[in-house]
Structure formats: C-alpha cells, structure tokens
Design goal:
mainly alpha
Length: about 120
C-alpha cells in the first residue's frame, strides 16, 4: 500500500536528496558550491528562472490533480495523478531549456540551498 504524503513533505524530501546530489556532483566535477557562474550552459539568473518554473510545475500538478482526481484530498488516485502530472510538467521544463532530469535536480538543490524565490 502506497503511503500518501503532503506536497510540502515531498518537496522537502526532494530538496534534501537534491542537496546531497549537488554535494556529490560538485565533488566529482570540481564544481563546488562557491561561485555563481554558468552551469549547464545557463547563467545563475537563468537557473533562477528554471527553479521558479519547477516550483510552478509542482504547484500546477497539485492543483490539476485536485481538480481532476476522484476521491478526497488524501485519495490515492489524487496522489498518483499529482505525481504523474509533476513528472510530465518537469519533463516539459527540461525540454524547454534543453536540460536533463539530473540537471533539473541540481538546479532545484541549488535554488533551495541559496533560498531562491519560487514565486
């Protein structure tokens, strides 16, 4: 049986795992946390915009799932729909910016670490 979790919990869990990934990726590639130069072909300003789009995609997935799912707020179908929509919306952000899912995770972790606005 799948356990239902709140969007905030999922976001915090995602950020924690992403922060770990950033640390490991930085150590492996020599790109530490210092500096705000270009990464993945994007300036920090552009990465902030991607971070805001990712946050918007998550909010949109939750909202769309709430509107379309059968059952109440904690229903399994709603949770599954929100997860599926979140994956779809994240993939659209990745395609739009020519990024991989791993790069989105790293940008998400960078934004979380640097307290970027999610709008």
């Amino acid at each position: 049986m799948q356990r239902s979790t709140s969007p905030r919990f999922r976001a915090l869990a995602f950020a924690a795992s992403a922060a770990l990934a950033v640390g490991l990726a930085g150590a492996a590639t020599g790109q530490g946390q210092a500096g705000s130069g270009e990464r993945f072909g994007l300036t920090e300003s552009q990465r902030k915009a991607v971070f805001a789009e990712l946050a918007g995609a998550e909010r949109r997935a939750e909202k769309d799932a709430a509107a379309r799912a059968e059952g109440g707020p904690g229903s399994q179908s709603r949770t599954e729909l929100a997860q599926r929509l979140s994956r779809e919306y994240r993939a659209a952000v990745a395609r739009k910016h020519g990024l991989t899912d791993e790069q989105l995770v790293l940008i998400g972790a960078e934004g979380f670490e640097k307290s970027w606005s999610a709008r």
